[in-house]
Amino acid sequence: MNFPAHATSPDAARTLADPDTPFAVVDVHRVRRNIERLSTRADRLGVDLRPHVKTAKSLDVAALLHPGAPCPVTVSTLAEAEAFADGGYTDITYAVGIDPHKLPRVLALLRRGVTLRTLLDSAEQAEFVAEASRRAGLSVPAQIEIDCDGHRGGLRPDAPELVEAGRILHAANCLDGVLTHAGESYFAYTAEDLRLAAKNERDTAVAAADRLREAGLPVTTVSVGSTPTAHAAEDLTGVTELRAGNYVFFDLVMAGIGVCRIEDLALSVVVTVIGHRPEYGWIVTDGGWMAMSRDRGTSVQAQDQGYGLVTDLHGNPIPELVMTAASQEHGTLATRDGARLPDLPIGTRLRILPNHACATAAQHHGYHVVDSTRTTNTAPGIQDFWRRVTGW
Protein backbone atom coordinates (compact mmCIF):
# COMPACT_ATOMS: atom_id res chain seq x y z
CA MET A 1 0.00 0.00 0.00
CA ASN A 2 1.37 3.46 -0.86
CA PHE A 3 1.01 6.35 1.56
CA PRO A 4 1.38 10.08 0.80
CA ALA A 5 4.47 11.74 2.24
CA HIS A 6 2.46 13.68 4.83
CA ALA A 7 0.64 10.59 6.14
CA THR A 8 1.79 8.24 8.88
CA SER A 9 2.24 4.76 7.45
CA PRO A 10 0.92 1.81 9.47
CA ASP A 11 4.46 0.59 10.06
CA ALA A 12 5.55 3.94 11.50
CA ALA A 13 2.57 4.50 13.82
CA ARG A 14 3.30 3.91 17.48
CA THR A 15 0.07 4.82 19.26
CA LEU A 16 -3.56 5.51 18.32
CA ALA A 17 -2.62 9.20 18.40
CA ASP A 18 -0.36 8.82 15.34
CA PRO A 19 -2.19 7.66 12.16
CA ASP A 20 -4.41 10.03 10.21
CA THR A 21 -8.07 9.36 11.01
CA PRO A 22 -10.31 7.57 10.35
CA PHE A 23 -8.72 4.14 10.68
CA ALA A 24 -9.72 0.70 11.91
CA VAL A 25 -8.49 -0.78 15.18
CA VAL A 26 -8.58 -4.37 16.38
CA ASP A 27 -8.11 -5.41 20.00
CA VAL A 28 -6.10 -8.64 19.78
CA HIS A 29 -6.97 -9.62 23.35
CA ARG A 30 -10.68 -9.60 22.57
CA VAL A 31 -10.12 -11.45 19.29
CA ARG A 32 -8.29 -14.25 21.10
CA ARG A 33 -11.00 -14.45 23.75
CA ASN A 34 -13.78 -14.60 21.13
CA ILE A 35 -11.94 -17.32 19.19
CA GLU A 36 -11.39 -19.43 22.28
CA ARG A 37 -15.04 -19.17 23.27
CA LEU A 38 -16.36 -20.68 20.03
CA SER A 39 -13.53 -23.19 19.68
CA THR A 40 -14.36 -24.58 23.11
CA ARG A 41 -18.04 -24.74 22.21
CA ALA A 42 -17.39 -26.60 18.95
CA ASP A 43 -15.27 -29.14 20.80
CA ARG A 44 -18.09 -29.68 23.29
CA LEU A 45 -20.61 -30.14 20.48
CA GLY A 46 -18.34 -32.66 18.78
CA VAL A 47 -18.04 -30.91 15.41
CA ASP A 48 -15.20 -29.46 13.38
CA LEU A 49 -15.04 -25.69 13.26
CA ARG A 50 -14.56 -24.14 9.82
CA PRO A 51 -14.27 -20.38 10.50
CA HIS A 52 -15.55 -17.97 7.88
CA VAL A 53 -12.83 -15.46 7.08
CA LYS A 54 -15.18 -13.03 5.30
CA THR A 55 -15.35 -10.71 8.32
CA ALA A 56 -11.67 -10.08 8.99
CA LYS A 57 -10.33 -11.11 5.53
CA SER A 58 -6.91 -11.22 7.17
CA LEU A 59 -4.25 -13.91 7.27
CA ASP A 60 -3.01 -12.41 10.54
CA VAL A 61 -6.40 -12.83 12.19
CA ALA A 62 -6.72 -16.33 10.74
CA ALA A 63 -3.36 -17.29 12.24
CA LEU A 64 -4.98 -16.91 15.68
CA LEU A 65 -7.72 -19.41 14.83
CA HIS A 66 -5.48 -22.46 14.97
CA PRO A 67 -1.95 -21.56 16.07
CA GLY A 68 0.75 -23.66 14.48
CA ALA A 69 -1.02 -24.70 11.28
CA PRO A 70 -3.64 -23.41 8.83
CA CYS A 71 -7.12 -24.67 9.67
CA PRO A 72 -10.07 -25.35 7.34
CA VAL A 73 -11.70 -22.05 6.40
CA THR A 74 -14.75 -20.66 4.61
CA VAL A 75 -14.45 -17.76 2.17
CA SER A 76 -16.94 -15.48 0.43
CA THR A 77 -14.79 -14.46 -2.57
CA LEU A 78 -12.28 -16.17 -4.82
CA ALA A 79 -9.86 -13.36 -3.99
CA GLU A 80 -9.98 -14.61 -0.39
CA ALA A 81 -9.51 -18.20 -1.55
CA GLU A 82 -6.46 -17.24 -3.62
CA ALA A 83 -4.91 -15.13 -0.85
CA PHE A 84 -5.44 -17.83 1.74
CA ALA A 85 -4.06 -20.47 -0.63
CA ASP A 86 -0.96 -18.29 -1.01
CA GLY A 87 -0.80 -18.27 2.80
CA GLY A 88 -0.71 -22.06 3.00
CA TYR A 89 -4.41 -22.85 3.47
CA THR A 90 -5.39 -25.96 1.53
CA ASP A 91 -8.91 -26.77 2.83
CA ILE A 92 -11.30 -24.03 1.69
CA THR A 93 -15.05 -23.77 1.14
CA TYR A 94 -16.23 -21.03 -1.22
CA ALA A 95 -19.67 -20.44 0.25
CA VAL A 96 -21.29 -18.36 -2.48
CA GLY A 97 -23.17 -19.86 -5.40
CA ILE A 98 -20.83 -20.65 -8.28
CA ASP A 99 -21.15 -19.26 -11.78
CA PRO A 100 -19.46 -20.65 -14.93
CA HIS A 101 -17.17 -17.66 -15.42
CA LYS A 102 -15.40 -18.32 -12.10
CA LEU A 103 -14.66 -22.00 -12.68
CA PRO A 104 -11.23 -21.41 -14.32
CA ARG A 105 -10.04 -19.79 -11.07
CA VAL A 106 -11.51 -22.67 -9.08
CA LEU A 107 -9.71 -25.19 -11.29
CA ALA A 108 -6.45 -23.26 -10.96
CA LEU A 109 -6.62 -23.57 -7.18
CA LEU A 110 -7.48 -27.25 -7.39
CA ARG A 111 -4.43 -27.81 -9.60
CA ARG A 112 -2.32 -26.19 -6.89
CA GLY A 113 -3.42 -28.89 -4.49
CA VAL A 114 -6.06 -26.81 -2.70
CA THR A 115 -9.29 -28.59 -1.82
CA LEU A 116 -11.71 -25.85 -2.83
CA ARG A 117 -15.38 -26.71 -2.37
CA THR A 118 -17.92 -24.84 -4.48
CA LEU A 119 -21.57 -24.17 -3.67
CA LEU A 120 -24.69 -24.48 -5.85
CA ASP A 121 -28.45 -24.75 -5.55
CA SER A 122 -29.67 -25.85 -8.99
CA ALA A 123 -29.36 -28.69 -11.45
CA GLU A 124 -28.19 -26.11 -13.99
CA GLN A 125 -25.19 -25.22 -11.85
CA ALA A 126 -24.54 -28.90 -11.16
CA GLU A 127 -24.42 -29.53 -14.93
CA PHE A 128 -21.78 -26.92 -15.66
CA VAL A 129 -19.68 -27.93 -12.64
CA ALA A 130 -19.84 -31.57 -13.73
CA GLU A 131 -18.98 -30.67 -17.33
CA ALA A 132 -16.05 -28.48 -16.26
CA SER A 133 -14.77 -31.34 -14.11
CA ARG A 134 -14.91 -33.79 -17.02
CA ARG A 135 -13.17 -31.41 -19.42
CA ALA A 136 -10.42 -30.68 -16.89
CA GLY A 137 -10.05 -34.27 -15.76
CA LEU A 138 -10.26 -32.92 -12.25
CA SER A 139 -13.12 -33.29 -9.76
CA VAL A 140 -14.58 -29.99 -8.54
CA PRO A 141 -15.96 -30.68 -5.03
CA ALA A 142 -19.44 -29.20 -4.70
CA GLN A 143 -21.91 -28.78 -1.88
CA ILE A 144 -25.63 -28.27 -2.40
CA GLU A 145 -26.94 -25.23 -0.58
CA ILE A 146 -30.01 -25.89 1.56
CA ASP A 147 -32.58 -23.20 2.38
CA CYS A 148 -33.36 -23.39 6.09
CA ASP A 149 -35.00 -19.99 6.58
CA GLY A 150 -34.19 -16.80 4.71
CA HIS A 151 -34.72 -17.98 1.11
CA ARG A 152 -31.71 -16.01 -0.14
CA GLY A 153 -30.46 -19.17 -1.78
CA GLY A 154 -30.66 -22.92 -1.48
CA LEU A 155 -33.07 -25.78 -2.04
CA ARG A 156 -35.58 -27.03 0.49
CA PRO A 157 -34.90 -30.61 1.66
CA ASP A 158 -38.02 -31.83 -0.13
CA ALA A 159 -37.29 -30.05 -3.44
CA PRO A 160 -37.24 -32.48 -6.42
CA GLU A 161 -34.16 -30.67 -7.76
CA LEU A 162 -32.12 -31.66 -4.69
CA VAL A 163 -31.73 -35.28 -5.71
CA GLU A 164 -31.43 -34.32 -9.38
CA ALA A 165 -28.51 -32.00 -8.63
CA GLY A 166 -26.99 -34.62 -6.36
CA ARG A 167 -27.08 -37.26 -9.09
CA ILE A 168 -25.50 -34.95 -11.66
CA LEU A 169 -22.66 -34.13 -9.27
CA HIS A 170 -22.16 -37.71 -8.16
CA ALA A 171 -21.87 -38.92 -11.75
CA ALA A 172 -18.90 -36.57 -12.17
CA ASN A 173 -17.42 -37.49 -8.76
CA CYS A 174 -18.15 -33.96 -7.51
CA LEU A 175 -20.76 -34.39 -4.76
CA ASP A 176 -19.29 -33.44 -1.39
CA GLY A 177 -22.37 -32.75 0.73
CA VAL A 178 -24.80 -30.07 1.87
CA LEU A 179 -24.44 -26.64 3.43
CA THR A 180 -26.92 -24.26 5.05
CA HIS A 181 -26.82 -20.88 6.78
CA ALA A 182 -29.47 -19.61 9.21
CA GLY A 183 -29.48 -16.00 8.06
CA GLU A 184 -32.74 -15.24 9.84
CA SER A 185 -31.02 -15.91 13.18
CA TYR A 186 -29.77 -12.32 13.02
CA PHE A 187 -33.35 -11.34 13.84
CA ALA A 188 -33.80 -13.71 16.79
CA TYR A 189 -34.07 -11.58 19.89
CA THR A 190 -34.39 -14.09 22.72
CA ALA A 191 -32.31 -17.03 23.87
CA GLU A 192 -35.19 -19.36 23.01
CA ASP A 193 -35.51 -17.90 19.51
CA LEU A 194 -31.79 -18.41 18.96
CA ARG A 195 -31.99 -21.98 20.23
CA LEU A 196 -34.89 -22.73 17.88
CA ALA A 197 -33.05 -21.13 14.94
CA ALA A 198 -30.04 -23.36 15.64
CA LYS A 199 -32.24 -26.44 15.91
CA ASN A 200 -34.02 -25.64 12.66
CA GLU A 201 -30.70 -25.07 10.90
CA ARG A 202 -29.43 -28.45 12.02
CA ASP A 203 -32.68 -30.31 11.35
CA THR A 204 -32.98 -28.88 7.84
CA ALA A 205 -29.42 -29.74 6.84
CA VAL A 206 -29.64 -33.25 8.27
CA ALA A 207 -32.98 -33.85 6.52
CA ALA A 208 -31.45 -32.86 3.18
CA ALA A 209 -28.44 -35.12 3.76
CA ASP A 210 -30.73 -38.02 4.71
CA ARG A 211 -32.79 -37.54 1.55
CA LEU A 212 -29.69 -37.68 -0.64
CA ARG A 213 -28.48 -40.80 1.14
CA GLU A 214 -31.88 -42.45 0.73
CA ALA A 215 -31.45 -41.86 -3.01
CA GLY A 216 -28.17 -43.78 -2.87
CA LEU A 217 -25.94 -40.72 -2.98
CA PRO A 218 -22.91 -40.21 -0.71
CA VAL A 219 -22.88 -37.22 1.64
CA THR A 220 -19.55 -36.55 3.30
CA THR A 221 -20.12 -33.04 4.62
CA VAL A 222 -23.11 -31.63 6.49
CA SER A 223 -22.18 -28.01 7.14
CA VAL A 224 -24.17 -25.50 9.20
CA GLY A 225 -23.50 -22.23 10.84
CA SER A 226 -23.89 -18.55 11.56
CA THR A 227 -22.47 -16.61 14.48
CA PRO A 228 -25.82 -16.53 16.35
CA THR A 229 -26.64 -20.23 15.87
CA ALA A 230 -23.07 -21.37 16.49
CA HIS A 231 -23.34 -19.87 19.98
CA ALA A 232 -26.88 -21.18 20.59
CA ALA A 233 -26.75 -24.75 19.26
CA GLU A 234 -27.28 -27.46 21.86
CA ASP A 235 -27.22 -30.60 19.69
CA LEU A 236 -25.44 -30.99 16.35
CA THR A 237 -25.97 -34.71 15.86
CA GLY A 238 -25.66 -35.47 12.16
CA VAL A 239 -23.63 -32.33 11.45
CA THR A 240 -19.96 -32.62 10.50
CA GLU A 241 -18.84 -28.99 10.65
CA LEU A 242 -19.80 -25.61 12.08
CA ARG A 243 -19.17 -22.31 10.28
CA ALA A 244 -19.13 -18.78 11.70
CA GLY A 245 -17.19 -15.62 10.94
CA ASN A 246 -18.46 -12.50 12.66
CA TYR A 247 -17.55 -13.92 16.07
CA VAL A 248 -13.86 -13.04 15.77
CA PHE A 249 -14.79 -9.34 16.05
CA PHE A 250 -18.49 -9.34 17.03
CA ASP A 251 -20.48 -6.10 16.66
CA LEU A 252 -23.47 -4.16 17.97
CA VAL A 253 -26.00 -6.32 16.12
CA MET A 254 -24.62 -9.42 17.83
CA ALA A 255 -24.65 -7.63 21.19
CA GLY A 256 -28.22 -6.55 20.52
CA ILE A 257 -29.45 -10.11 20.12
CA GLY A 258 -27.53 -11.27 23.17
CA VAL A 259 -24.79 -13.31 21.47
CA CYS A 260 -22.04 -11.20 23.04
CA ARG A 261 -21.44 -8.22 25.32
CA ILE A 262 -20.31 -4.74 24.32
CA GLU A 263 -17.05 -5.64 26.08
CA ASP A 264 -16.45 -8.39 23.50
CA LEU A 265 -16.42 -6.10 20.45
CA ALA A 266 -12.90 -6.24 19.02
CA LEU A 267 -13.26 -3.86 16.06
CA SER A 268 -13.60 -0.09 16.25
CA VAL A 269 -12.85 2.95 14.11
CA VAL A 270 -10.81 5.89 15.39
CA VAL A 271 -12.19 9.30 14.39
CA THR A 272 -11.35 12.90 15.28
CA VAL A 273 -13.66 15.67 16.47
CA ILE A 274 -13.60 18.39 13.80
CA GLY A 275 -16.52 20.60 14.82
CA HIS A 276 -19.41 21.43 17.14
CA ARG A 277 -23.02 22.40 16.43
CA PRO A 278 -24.36 23.07 19.92
CA GLU A 279 -27.56 24.60 18.54
CA TYR A 280 -28.42 21.13 17.19
CA GLY A 281 -26.82 19.09 19.96
CA TRP A 282 -24.14 17.71 17.63
CA ILE A 283 -20.47 16.93 17.70
CA VAL A 284 -18.97 16.47 14.22
CA THR A 285 -16.17 14.02 13.39
CA ASP A 286 -14.16 13.11 10.30
CA GLY A 287 -15.58 9.57 10.25
CA GLY A 288 -18.63 9.25 8.02
CA TRP A 289 -20.17 6.27 6.25
CA MET A 290 -17.01 5.76 4.21
CA ALA A 291 -15.36 4.80 7.49
CA MET A 292 -18.28 3.06 9.21
CA SER A 293 -20.42 1.83 6.26
CA ARG A 294 -24.12 2.61 5.85
CA ASP A 295 -25.20 -0.44 7.85
CA ARG A 296 -28.01 0.32 10.28
CA GLY A 297 -28.58 -3.20 11.52
CA THR A 298 -29.53 -2.15 15.05
CA SER A 299 -32.41 0.03 13.82
CA VAL A 300 -34.76 -2.98 14.05
CA GLN A 301 -33.58 -3.91 17.54
CA ALA A 302 -34.91 -2.78 20.90
CA GLN A 303 -31.91 -0.44 21.28
CA ASP A 304 -31.08 1.51 18.13
CA GLN A 305 -27.36 2.28 18.19
CA GLY A 306 -27.39 4.68 15.25
CA TYR A 307 -24.22 4.20 13.24
CA GLY A 308 -22.26 3.12 16.31
CA LEU A 309 -21.50 3.63 19.97
CA VAL A 310 -18.81 6.11 21.00
CA THR A 311 -15.90 5.33 23.33
CA ASP A 312 -12.80 7.23 24.36
CA LEU A 313 -9.46 6.32 22.84
CA HIS A 314 -8.96 3.57 25.45
CA GLY A 315 -12.27 1.93 24.55
CA ASN A 316 -14.29 3.14 27.52
CA PRO A 317 -17.89 3.91 26.44
CA ILE A 318 -18.94 7.55 26.76
CA PRO A 319 -22.40 7.32 28.39
CA GLU A 320 -25.33 7.90 26.01
CA LEU A 321 -23.14 9.24 23.17
CA VAL A 322 -24.08 7.73 19.80
CA MET A 323 -23.14 8.29 16.18
CA THR A 324 -26.57 9.34 15.02
CA ALA A 325 -25.94 10.37 11.40
CA ALA A 326 -23.35 10.06 8.66
CA SER A 327 -22.53 11.63 5.35
CA GLN A 328 -19.62 10.50 3.22
CA GLU A 329 -16.81 11.93 5.36
CA HIS A 330 -18.66 13.44 8.32
CA GLY A 331 -20.04 11.69 11.37
CA THR A 332 -22.58 13.27 13.71
CA LEU A 333 -22.51 12.41 17.41
CA ALA A 334 -25.35 13.21 19.78
CA THR A 335 -26.57 12.11 23.18
CA ARG A 336 -29.31 9.54 23.13
CA ASP A 337 -31.57 11.43 25.51
CA GLY A 338 -30.76 14.96 24.39
CA ALA A 339 -28.71 15.61 27.52
CA ARG A 340 -25.78 18.01 27.56
CA LEU A 341 -22.95 16.98 25.28
CA PRO A 342 -19.64 15.96 26.85
CA ASP A 343 -16.74 18.37 26.51
CA LEU A 344 -14.82 17.01 23.53
CA PRO A 345 -12.60 19.74 22.02
CA ILE A 346 -11.66 19.81 18.36
CA GLY A 347 -8.81 17.35 17.86
CA THR A 348 -10.15 14.83 20.39
CA ARG A 349 -9.82 11.27 19.15
CA LEU A 350 -12.63 8.79 19.76
CA ARG A 351 -13.42 5.22 18.81
CA ILE A 352 -16.72 4.11 17.26
CA LEU A 353 -18.02 0.57 17.78
CA PRO A 354 -19.78 -0.60 14.59
CA ASN A 355 -23.18 -2.10 13.90
CA HIS A 356 -21.85 -4.66 11.45
CA ALA A 357 -18.20 -5.69 11.71
CA CYS A 358 -18.07 -7.19 8.20
CA ALA A 359 -19.33 -4.01 6.55
CA THR A 360 -17.17 -1.64 8.59
CA ALA A 361 -14.02 -3.71 8.14
CA ALA A 362 -14.61 -3.65 4.38
CA GLN A 363 -14.07 0.13 4.36
CA HIS A 364 -10.43 -0.23 5.41
CA HIS A 365 -7.19 -1.67 4.02
CA GLY A 366 -6.19 -3.16 7.35
CA TYR A 367 -6.22 -2.97 11.12
CA HIS A 368 -4.04 -1.19 13.63
CA VAL A 369 -3.67 -3.73 16.42
CA VAL A 370 -3.87 -2.89 20.12
CA ASP A 371 -4.01 -5.03 23.24
CA SER A 372 -6.48 -3.83 25.88
CA THR A 373 -4.64 -5.73 28.61
CA ARG A 374 -1.72 -3.34 28.19
CA THR A 375 -3.03 -0.29 30.02
CA THR A 376 -1.43 3.11 29.67
CA ASN A 377 -2.23 6.68 30.66
CA THR A 378 -1.35 7.87 27.18
CA ALA A 379 -2.81 6.80 23.84
CA PRO A 380 -2.92 2.99 23.48
CA GLY A 381 0.15 1.56 21.81
CA ILE A 382 -0.07 -0.02 18.38
CA GLN A 383 1.35 -3.55 18.39
CA ASP A 384 1.09 -4.33 14.69
CA PHE A 385 -0.71 -3.61 11.42
CA TRP A 386 -2.71 -6.44 9.83
CA ARG A 387 -3.58 -6.08 6.17
CA ARG A 388 -6.88 -7.20 4.65
CA VAL A 389 -7.71 -9.05 1.46
CA THR A 390 -9.77 -6.92 -0.90
CA GLY A 391 -11.64 -7.48 -4.16
CA TRP A 392 -13.51 -10.44 -5.53
UniProtKB/TrEMBL annotation:
Residues 266-371 form the D-serine dehydratase-like domain. The keyword Lyase applies. Keywords: Lyase. SUPFAM superfamilies: PLP-binding barrel (SSF51419). SMART domains: D-ser_dehydrat. Belongs to the DSD1 family. This is Alanine racemase. It comes from Streptomyces violascens.
